[in-house]
Amino acid sequence: MSHDLVAQPLKLLPFLMLSAWCGLVSGLLEVGEIILCKQALDFNRLYWMSRHFVWLVPLINLLIFLILGMVLSVLVWRWESRGRWLGIRLLCALTVLPLIWAALNRIYGPAGFLVALGVAARLVPALERHATGFRRLVRASFPLVACAVPFLATSL
Description:
Blueprint (H helix, E strand, L loop, with lengths): L1 H39 L12 H26 L1 H24 L5 H21 L1 H25 L1
């Protein structure tokens, strides 16, 4: 029995790492998308927010996704296959949700969430077919996206 309790956290650690990676990536994509939209599509180039948004948005997304990852880890631990199925799709939907809300700023909030769920329903099976390559991508890019936030904070 004690062996199972020791082995369980090792199974949940990749899920927490994936949620942290999703938080960092969604934050960096959201910042990039805000900057791109302001520079390319908007005549008013003022951001109407603090200049520190370039590192605060990814940091806040990281914290939100880590908390969500802990909650979803309990769900995965409790209901192995259904919890993992739901958790992965929810992480994917919440990763693309800020992009959808920022790109389609006139979309109603719950409608944007439904669009994000639809994107996740199509994207996750494609990523599951290439699971080893995706895991390799997450492991290789995690240090880069993790170092991007302090780099952005010190570059201001």
